[in-house]
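Quick one: structure for this chain?
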Amino acid sequence: MQKLIVESKFNNKKLSNFLYAHFNGLTSSTLHKALRKKDIRINDVRINEDIIVHEFDTVTIYILDEFLYKNINLEKVYEDENILVINKPTELEVVSTTNEETATSILQKEYSYIKPCHRLDRNTTGLVLYAKNPEALDILSEKFKSKEIKKNYLCTVIGRMPKKEDLLKAYLFKDTKKSLVYISDVPKKGYQEILTKYTVISEDAKNKTSILDIELITGRTHQIRAHLAHIGHPIVGDGKYGINEINKKLNCKYQQLKNYKMQFQFSTPSGDLEYLNNKIIKINASF
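Got it. Here's what it folds into:
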């Protein structure tokens, strides 16, 4: 049995949309069978059809976990006694406030202590750094704050960039209720400065796309996706900030955004993690 609360982004959406977003192994046949058997309740009322749900509804489903979650094997890119780095696949959260399976919940079945040091969006793939003990978590959290851990992303964007490389500056506002961010070219109340550096790797004249290497100077929610969309070059496959018509034309369901490189560049004391200084962890830089 699983019990979930409907978030604002699923308000006035079909129950099926809500459930498919939370359970990566749920199929339409399993869902329809559960509806026929009235194995789903909304606000403690049994239902037998794919009705509309509303924010704060309580959805209780009586379906075995084996039919709700895919069996995901996480690729371990690097591991030692203090840290673990995985290659996160798409359609998987790093952590979640709901009962859905996440990269962290999968790892918690194997490790007595495992905590993520940063996050990636659900459909952003690539490197996620975990601490295997509290001491490592404290050190790495400070290193991220002081920008002593550098992350590089690979992405495919629509169009040709105006320059081969550039440092983009803007201001970002996070709307938590709508799960969206907004970008402004000028400072505004409630907006935070963002800096996004890009370098063009290649261009595809046929599809009118470009592949970029992105270095985050600041690391805000949805920064890369929203910033590139703001300048007219959204990421291919991005359903939130992108162009759906082009995504469909290119047959791309998920955003082409990957955290492919992580570099430890310590300039302050790092205790037991000093051995990581100048270490580079990489995965294949392609989609």
